[in-house]
Records
---
Amino acid sequence: MAIKIEKKITGYEVVKAGDREEQPSNVTHIAPLLERDDILDGITYKIKTPMSDHAMYITINDVVVNVGTPDEHRRPFEVFINSKNMEHFMWIVALTRVISAIFRKGGDITFLVEEMKAVFDPRGGYYKRGGRYMPSLVAEIGEVIQQHLVSIGMMEGQLDTPELEAKRREVKERLGDDAIAKGNQCDKCGAMAVIRLDNCNTCLECGDSKCG
């Protein structure tokens, strides 16, 4: 291949093959996307808020990775959200596509929970069954994802228990709605759900208590 020299030659040097070592290039390998099996196991969660007459159904399908190895485990692959309420249809479709894309990228996906649960509705939040305050519908969807990650072992924490729900009802009855809405941040799970009751700080999200 001929190369046209457009500048004046002021010197030259003969270089033999092998005289100069090629500088190795830094190659960044991107993890391959998770592959979808023909059949996936999934769980459907129901959300019923006072903001709508219709329930919302969230289905999270999982894929099993590293099959047959000590590192075999389940992880989310895709999410679907359905409801008869068409008010939020556009942003819900967008949300499911973005979340599913993040699931398929692999790696640590637990940051989704924190980001979604930090979304506040400017019109105000609501209380779900059991007395837990939800700052927005997006935050409750984030909580569903959290519960799913806990159930398959991808995230630390505990699932909802009758004891936790009873504690939330007690706080709501004794201290009122504002106390729950203004909870402090939990050192263990990061949720803004720490309430002082009977001289004891207790997280109404994960159940962590300084009093044992």
Note: Helices lie at 89-105, 111-117, 137-151, 162-175, 177-181.
---
Amino acid sequence: MVFSSIEFLFYFLPVVLLIYYLVPKVAKNLVLLVASLIFYAWGAPDFFLIFIVSMLCNFLITKKMHNAEEAKPRKRWLALSLVLNIGLLAYFKYMNFFVDNLNALLSLSHHATLHFARVALPIGISFFTFQSISYTVDVYRKVSEPLRRWYDYMLYISLFPQLIAGPIIRYNTIAEQLVDRTSTMEDRVAGFRRFVIGLSKKVLIANTLAILADEVFAMDYHTMSTGTAWMGIIAYTFQIYFDFSGYSDMAIGIGRMLGFRFSENFNVPYISQSISEFWRRWHMTLGGFMKEYLYIPLGGNRVSKGRTYFNLWIVFLISGLWHGASWTFVLWGVFHGTFLILDRLFMLDFLKKIGRFPAIILTFFIVVLGWVLFRAETVSGAIDFYQALFTFRSGATAAISLQCYLFLALAFLFAFIPVLKFGDKWMNLFYNDTHSKTVTIVLFIVTMVLFFLSVGSLAVTDFNPFIYFRF
């Protein structure tokens, strides 16, 4: 079950909200927990028991760690929790990758290869693993107190709005909301508007551009024209942004309707003037997690320049691997890590000298090139696609509909208009809470129009899952 489905929009979500608003405050967390477990079981019934057991184990381990008075036992319980969480992630997400690469090495050395049953990937494991780690580490650091009730902890890990694809909610940012929160009518209206914005991004823009991107990346890279290759990667560049930021908007909106204030995950990243700024605007909760729980423990920028650059590179190599068990994702992480190092060496000064708009164009160009690695199935496929981009040849072309051109233009508009003052002010109208009566009425009308357009599109198009569901 995904947010952009008729089942979710007209059955699951309305029923959950109705029950949640009717029950007394003491029962609200239990209602949300049951709803969240049903939501997860609906999408991954085979992994439901593992999901439950891992949560209960982590809750008990963290409780033992908190109650331990001496440093050594606390460190041991922390280590056990990390081994449990990272171990499950490593097995389910990377075992196939490890065995495939080991078999490749064995084949090169003319040894017999290993035979084993392929491991299926539980949906959302990358996201709820990070939240489990955040809980244990924050309690270990005494940043936040542990939750007293097991079902409050299970709710934190399994809360359905952000369970499958984030945002990654660090425990210290939501600890108080898990035990005490309110949901006002203003929250519900603002949350619904935010949800519809995300739904529109996903259904009207991302799904339309996915048709073009999928067609281009399914072609023979050796024979496609350069123009087609650029159209394909540009389409994917906007598809992944509106797909993922759309999901984040929907998650934040649902959370707001339930009384939660989730962290923002995107801030118009394509208007960035450097790769460093891009990562302050793109998938901000992942960046915050990596900084807090990996970059700073490695020494951050409190060490020598060489060690700082190494820390950056390691963090983004791991970030790439977190996205997927493939060498293309590893190289994508290395690609961005390298440009972050180049920013610190000389590129920030260079980009500042050439001016704002040239810096935005150059940064966007670099980001687009990086998405080739993210989208290609193999490293050799990515190399072939890069050749198609830069050989400036004629060749096979994709059939591009007028609808694709229209929504590609809209994608450009909504991605870049905030670079202008009036555009930023206009876009913020949809995200701010306080408005005049006239603006409120206009926003309500626009919200309802977008909602019915999205529902109409869902009724006549094929199912299209979120890109980040596979991570």
Note: The mean pLDDT is 90.
---
Amino acid sequence: MTRRKRILVATGGGDCPGLNAVLRAIVKKATGQHNWEVLGSIDAFNGVLSEPMQLKVLDLAAVSGIHVRGGTIIGTTNRGGPFHWPVRRSDGTWGTEDRSDELIRRLQYQGIEAVINIGGDGSQRISQALFEKGLNIIGVPKTIDNDLSATDFTFGYQTAVEVATDAVDKLVTTAESHNRMMVLEVMGRDAGWIALAAAIAGGADIVLIPEIPYNIESVMRKIDDRFRSGRGFVIVVVAEGAKPAGGDVVATESDEFGYHNRMLGGVGRFFVGQVKQQMPEVEARVTVLGHLQRGGSPCAFDRILATQFGVAAVDLIKEQKYGFMVASDYPRIVALPLKEAIKSYHYVEHDHPLVHTARGLGICLGD
């Protein structure tokens, strides 16, 4: 009797709406059409490296109906990883070790013939490094920040924009009622796609993004114009990575070992403080969306895109086209080498059509 082909799937980095839709698509394609066995590694590659291993059988029953659910049924993590596995030293301090070779051996022992790694920039850098070590691996891009340049869109982004836009809509009504400035702080460490899109969709007056350091004097002119009649309100959307010209982001160092990014947050309140130094009479409130942008059911666009990515990833395994990542080149789903996919970051360019649209609407970008 011929043994069924066995593949493994992992979800790494921050969670986002659409991960379960990818898992469902992979299983339905791999199991339904090819009769392959699909295993899920719990919490990214931690499931493979744990003792005992934590692997979950992903059959049709396990993924039934999960495309409407947020998060991921196999868990995820943005700490550690096979190349930087956290270990406690004998003196009680923490360090890291490279367990990538061990990871590959464990996969071989389990009869895993191919791996699908679903994640953002950091996860796909791990995919490339594992491919260079000989692992048969396929990448699937995901991030709410839409910051992978190799794909037109990443799933999770549109849902995050809808959450942020809904928040802007709600803040407009309370801002108008109280004659206030309302500041909405959204995610966007290095890229301002969520903030820019939500500002346009929600009709904000000001949007501050990481790519355009803001001049407080330019922003103050916009605020003054909005309040000049005696009554008025101001809606500001600010990405967490926004910063004043000549300044730095508002952040603190993480105390979680294995988490390498600084903890961003607080730029909304910092900005309000700057405004009040010049216009103390302005009433202002800050709303921080935080992880609400990551949670909840994915919108239809993200469900479809995630499903397309899942099917395409299985197709690449069938073609033995390893070391590639699936991507959106609307309306097609394409594949490109992982090395190319992670080569450059997807910033908001100053001449991007969305920036042009924002300026055409009179939205202040702080420059």
Note: The first helix runs from residue 19 to 34.
---
Amino acid sequence: MRVTMIGTGYVGLVSGACFADFGHVVTCVDLNERKIEQLTNGKIPIFERGLAELVATNVREERLSFTTDLKIAVKNADAVFIAVGTPTRRGDGLADLRYVRQAAKDIAAVIDGFTVIINKSTVPVGTGDEVEKIIREQNPDADFAVVSNPEFLREGAAINDFKRPDRVVIGTDDPRAEAVMKELYRPLYLSETPILFTSRRSSELIKYAANAFLATKITFINEMADICEKVGADVQAVSRGMGLDKRIGAKFLNAGPGYGGSCFPKDTLALVGTAREVGAETGIVAAVIEANDRRKIRMADKVTQACGGDVSGKTIAVLGVAFKPNTDDVRDAPSLQILPALQQQGAKIRAFDPEAMDEAQLVLSDVQWCADAYECADGADVLVIITEWDQFRALDMGRLQQLMRQPSIVDLRNIYDPAAVRAAGFSYIGIGRT
């Protein structure tokens, strides 16, 4: 099939490359000429393992191309995906739909023949209705159907998530659109992927409901970790005991410094904003947002505790600033609140992240960026692990002890055994463990 992907951000680029790898002919469109030039030349603007190779392969085999010419791309397409950004709108927490609306207007101006228009962007309930209305008003003679097809891609595992998803959700009541969507995702039938066809509004809400629930699981286990610290229990044992219950499941029950990234913060806020607009209550989700914000700030207190109650003049070595490993994304990362909180108390920050330092430098100031974990630890009073990159999981404790001014570790991801670290001569503070 001929597919056009409007937007070459994280979702658009990964989805476009994966559809091309399925055998469809995909054109990715973006108004940013420099970005399109970079993509055409094989330069990938985001870090996602395997994506550069996937793009290169499909460009070489002429199934994937990039352009700024939306007219040609849409005119020749059977399916047009809207995969533009929907950032949080200032003031009310709702999703900013200006880019979605503009995409709808641009599509309406050039649509030719029956075309399925698919919202891949994360959008509030009713956005599909709005997109349909815009196109109908702009081009009353257009033959089209608007479909909701939310993405469920985890950064760092996006290609696998696209090709081997838990499910595909498609919102439409148009038989022609359903046939097109079945053909687009036909390669997944071989792996018996559940494909849920539902109403457009239900599909839109599924995305928000899923992310809000996962954010709630993270926040819940973080609160259990706080209790564990007070009563002398081990949150990892508690998490395992809970997770073995098949009704609960083990995923997203890892205690830490709070959730971040491009989805959970934005989507929970948008869900609460939508509920407020329609007069529904979302007390649980609102409490999750508030608790998560508080948690990030409190993580700085653990570092202060490790420094004897005062970080003024102390050097803090920070390992990991991305919101999770295997990505360069720092959006709403815990580090963005932890580091400034320590700096306000007079701490000097040294930091290292395998991929996210370029992005972090745009939003964090007065940080000394280092080449690796050991350079970062050199002369530090405490080593703080914020992101659980694999390369941080087996650090040479003897080498660290020689480099650091004080042998002290604050492990905000619980990747080390407290007894083993203490046996190596370090003081150790984790999450929900004593």
Note: The chain has a mean pLDDT of 96.
